[in-house]
Design a protein that fits this description.
The chain has about 900 residues and is mainly alpha-helical. It is built from 41 helices and 7 strands. Strand 6 and strand 7 form a beta hairpin. It is elongated. The relative contact order is 0.04. Keywords: Coiled coil.
Amino acid sequence: GKAAPSSSFFVARIEWFSTMSSGGRISRKVKQGKIEIDFEESALLVNYELEMVQCDDNGMVLGVLERKPDVRRIKINTLSADKNMAQLASNIIDKCKYIHPSRVEEVEQLLIKLRKHAMANERQVDDSSAGGSTDRIRENKERDREERDRKRSSDAAPNRQGIAQNNGRDDHRSSAAAPAPRPVVDPLPPAYMNNLDDYLEMLYQVSGKSEKEREEGLKLQERGTGMILKLCRDVMNLEQLIQNGTVMGALTRVLQEEFKKSVELTFNILRIFLAFSNFMEMHPLMANYKIGVLTMKAVDFELKRAEVREAERVARETELQTELEAAKQDMGTYPQVLDQVRRKREKENQKHKTTLRKQDKLLFVGLYILLNLAEDLAVERKMVIRSLIPSLVTTLTRRFDDLLILVVTFLKKLCIVGENKEAMKRLGVVEILNRFVPCSSQPLIMISLRLLFNLSFDKDMREQMLKGGMVPKLVNLLKTPSFRPKTLRLLYHLSSDDRCKSMITYTEGIPILMGLVINFPQDYLPKELAALVVNVSFNPRNCELMLNNKGLNLLMDRLADKRDPLLVKIVRNLSMWTFNQQEELESPELQYKYRGLWSPHIKVFMEIIMEEDKHDLLIEVFGTLANMTIYDLPASSNWSKLLREYSLLNLFCKMLVPGMAQNDLLLEIVMLVSTIASDLQACNLIASSTLIGQLYQLWEEKGDDTELLLQLIHCFHKLFMHDGSREEAMYSTRIVVDIIDCLNHRNAGVRAKAAIMCDLVLEFDRDATGELGNLGKKILQKQFEAHNKVWLGALQEEYASHGYNSNMIGGSMMGNGNSGGEYYADSRLESSEWNMSSQHLQQQQQGQGQYSQQQHYNDDDGGSVDNGHEGHWGGGGSVTGHNGNSGRYK
């Protein structure tokens, strides 16, 4: 069957990153295993694994040195029939440090089995000597035992079912979290399957009409259910009991009829059902008797009764306060009234505590049954329809730790369904969970962090967490090793909001995170830690704090040793911050206060790119170097010296060979070349190599990648800015023609960058007389077509309808002669010049003024361009029609 989510399956865990410094001491950790019975020796065998771990001075684990399996034997000397097994189990756990306190129920069941085995052996001996008197002897023994049980009072350990805790619990518990067992009286004798009919008979007792008869009837039913519950403590009896239709019918009938009358009776029956629900094979049989529906009714009724009782208690407290205020008018009677009110309050509080304790236990068992039954998703949906989530949220206001752990576990299971998550959002679950982070119960903190992590995938839920002030609390939890993994994951989700980044600034978060990064024991940082630090480093103030106390030096020392790609992401964000600092300054050479910060570490970056072949690592290192300016390099160095010293041009050319690198690495290389191209001497070196040709080849191969296309345009823009590389880049490739085509690109950023490049070509592509070269004329042609796209389209349609040449590019420019003159110019793309059509001018321009070669503007009735005239668009000439305005097309 399915293992019950019980604390009896507790296994100690050691969290993976619990180190803040190296060195320290060696300590032992115990990982618990199975508890077995040795029937021959009448003993319990406790299996465990002893781990020798190295810890630092703060108790944080540095590594596991040795694992050693072992067995501890516990000899049981006395197993008499009148022995209190619950108290014996509690004593064993108190004395044996290798058994967790949550396993008391498991130990008790094993002791019962051991006692049954011993008693069976005794009966076999008696049978061989007493012959046929066995039944009579057994009845006498049971009668004597029941008599002794009525007079006997013993200590019994609290009978609480455990709840699965994935990360376990610490072996040490505070006195407040785990109070010592109280002495209680066990009024019930041992139960036997042979007496099942007698126990059922108690359930069929009909209450009388008088109050006394009703109380006696309920007591008999409580005793009968209590005896059946004792039978359920033996797992071997469960299958026989649940398949007994009489037993199940009687239990469900009594629960349905009496759950409003007796808390103890309801509690006993629910505990019986809980034993069944621990095994999935029994769930269909439980469904036949509608146990889930009955349990939900009992839980809902108890929650409503708790609300009514709380309202009554508040009303009584108000009455007592009113009585006390009235007594103040007569100071003679005030002391007496004050004493009476004090005694009433004490009695009321004691009664209230007792009632709360009973309610908490009943709710715990009832909700535990529902949690087990909810393993079937169809059953879970039915529960949600019956308002399960509001009931769970209401229960979160109670103070019983085990109950709260169970409820949060249930909510964690439900929240993976979108509709359930929305219901929790409306009911304010995050606000309620806020009081558990932190609290005195470590298991409750852990399961609360898990639920909050699941909820943090929702943007509105993250908003509620930020408004509730959860960030400072989570930062404080980072100091506790066992909470770090879940806390880091939750903080990572929250850090997607800029407000979270700012909140961390005003806590101890940055020093703690830097300590975790720098002193992490493994070579590679965990993803959640690195991702959180990367997100936090997008805040400028956080970057400044990270650089304090030689933070960058410590990060770079670790990077030089570990070569961790995730660590380089953090370093790259810091380099981006220093780059932005320089961009915002008017005179960075004078105002940049971090000058020289990166200069000691340039060598580390260069060694990595020359020695490593890890794709992820190279991407981040190239990206980091792309953020370096001349003020970040060593004082005696520049990019041209670095190119020669480390043969970077050969490395770039090798990387740009088709198939050698993936697109994201190529992108970073292009960005780094753009940065290097800011240096005039470096541009001369680039022009003398084959790098420009390979960059253009990359353009042709990867032109469909918009991001890479943008960076290539920016790179060629840098190369165009220097004489040494401009000629090579502009005329040895067809990059300008391709950039002209980008004027019609689907991406707005590409179009804008291409337009800037075209303006740059128009400025530099001129002969000695200032005349535009072929590239400049092509740019003007493309600009004109883009600016007059609609008009040229209409012109093409008109030509097609009259049988003229339908080539839009080879057609004429035409304006309205009545208003502003008409222009005709043969502007074929393959021609290197714009030839004006005199034939069309004569047909359309009779009686109107014309432009001569010397005349650029005509303010008469109209204007046209002379056949031999060429205007320098964007340069020295303009084409204009007379509407009282002149037009320049760029």
